[in-house]
Model the fold of this input.
Amino acid sequence: MANYLLAYHGGGMAPTEEERARIMEAWGKWFQALGPALVDGGNPTAQAKTIASDGTATDGGGINPLTGYSILAADDLDAAVELAKGCPVLLSGGTVEVAEIMQVM
Done:
């Protein structure tokens, strides 16, 4: 079993308190449904800078900035993708990038 990084892009804060509560409830239910596959629920991300190979740093994190992450354990990439399809960030128009974390250190 390997660990997989779920990198969230896009989505956004719900405009009303009721909608925010509904989204938070969806996250809680999804995390609970993941059970032992949830290694790290992660967090949203805030301000970002991108550092280029010449050492310059620019604001924003690029065209499609990272908005959060989680880490899951799964048998393979396809299984991790299936688990990620339930991610609540998708409800607000965001996307989820799934990548295997290689254990090299």
User: Anything to note?
Assistant: Residues 2-100 form a domain with the Alpha-Beta Plaits fold (CATH 3.30.70.1060).
